[in-house]
Write a structure and sequence with these properties.
Elements (H helix, E strand, L loop, with lengths): L2 E6 L4 H6 L2 H9 L2 E6 L2 H7 L10 H17 L16 H13 L4 H13 L8 H10 L11 H18 L6 E4 L4 E3 L4 H8 L4
Parallel strand pairs: 1-2
Antiparallel strand pairs: 1-3, 3-4
Helix pairs in contact: 2-9, 5-6, 5-8, 6-7
Length: 199
């Protein structure tokens, strides 16, 4: 059975644009997924990247255009200048880590719910009520927002260290157990083909 380590940020626009395509691909190939939310700004700093606000204006302009093009292509609503970006992604990431341990709901829906809250709903995913509502909507106990905070913090930090070690430098990032790396929501077709043995 194939396995995918999924590195992402709950405030990443391109993670939002990935939707739940990864979960569909995994289901098609009988693959399992481990969700590994991480601090994307810290990842950029560790791997030679630059936070969006600190990039050259030409890069910022291109990023804004590309976000809107990809959203239209996928017929997904998107606010290119959301009210709560950047925000603290740690609390929502801890909730995903706790939910993964709990195993009761839909992790793909939860991860997408957080990114959708930022990029389509102008909600602040650092707020407890938003985290609880996203947990509930994905079939998890909202009380998970209050549990496992220490474990969540430790795992969140460990995900960053592991990401750097295996060659991850952005989000979303997919690492197949074959050792093949796929960066960006626009590489999901390649991941699909790889799992099918075609690439």
């Amino acid at each position: 059975m194939a396995h995918i380590d999924y590195y992402f940020s709950t405030m990443s626009p391109f993670t939002y644009l990935a939707g739940t395509t990864l979960e569909q691909i995994a289901a098609r190939h009988g693959a399992t997924i481990t969700y590994k939310p991480l601090d994307i700004v810290a990842l950029f700093a560790r791997t030679g990247g630059v936070a969006p606000a600190d990039r050259h204006p030409s890069r910022q302009s291109y990023r804004a255009q590309e976000m809107q093009r990809q959203a239209r292509k996928r017929e997904m609503p998107m606010n290119p200048k959301p009210a709560h970006f950047p925000t603290n992604s740690a609390p929502s990431s801890y909730a995903i880590i706790a939910a993964q341990s709990d195993g009761a709901g839909d992790l793909g829906a939860l991860a997408h719910g957080f990114t959708r809250a930022v990029w389509a709903e102008d909600r602040d995913i650092a707020q407890d009520d938003v985290i609880r509502e996203c947990l509930d909507a994905a079939g998890f106990d909202p009380a998970l927002a209050d549990s496992g905070l220490l474990t969540g913090a430790e795992t969140y930090a460990a995900n960053l260290e592991e990401a750097v070690k295996v060659g991850v430098f952005g989000a979303p990032f997919y690492v197949a157990d074959s050792g093949q790396l796929f960066w960006g929501q626009d590489r999901l077709d390649d991941l699909d083909a790889h799992l099918a043995g075609k690439l």
